[in-house]
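Quarterly update from the structural biology core.
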Amino acid sequence: MTSTSRRTVLTALAAATVGGPLLTGLGAAPAHAATDLYASNTDLYTKLAGREGIDFARRYRRHEQADFSLGATYPYPRTTVVAPHGGGIETGTSELCLAIAGYDPAKPENSPAGGPVHDYWMFEGLRSSGNGDLHVTATHCDDRIALSLATGSLNVLSLHGCTASQAGAPVGKPEAVVVGGLNGTFKQYLHDAFRAAGIQTIDGSSVPDLAGVQPLNLCNRTLLGKGAQLEITTELRRKMFVDNTRAGRATSTTEDFRIFVNAARAAVARLEAGADQIIL
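Predicted structure, tokenized:
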């Protein structure tokens, strides 16, 4: 691998901001895109104007970064963690997003969980029922904050929920995570970390609907034009919480939750140590 030059990164950022991803070709759209009620986040925000905080919510954190030195280079946030279908849409992904980003899901505003922190963004369903109607497929995500975070990051880790049958999990072993996205190195590090932690992984290449390989998928709209996507089965997410409700999840995480979070963070740390993560 080679280091990423400042000029390359700035050129990539301009292209991603103005013209979308650097890669060409959209690939096949996920099957569930055809069933979405809203064509994009903008469409949803427009049609549900005045319902934010009631039907849905948006939360994000962009960490301050600065370099005032003439001769030294300082670290900068390189990875963004996103949950496009959080809250009641794909339950558990909001809490995982916060924890993998380095924050306590119960007190994200002022309580880092320790270790490195990462930028994050999430869209959440807040309804008591019918949250699935708020689903906007990741290739149609046009939330401006989400896009600005993705296109300003070298890496994006996108968290989703699926069923065991959608994931193609073996009979009798429904607890699994499908690892997808266009960043092959990131995918391998995630496979390695999850398997070392005793978590069953399935490669996205064997599950086309969950592969996350479309260039317009939010996980791939990065400075490098590639990222990673995790599709976590319902059965695995259920094991992560004692009280699997919107009010209870953040304060009732289990050891399974912590094992998953630590594995994901280990994979991110390994990725960020790579030569292509350096801006010269």
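The chain has one domain: 6-58+76-275.
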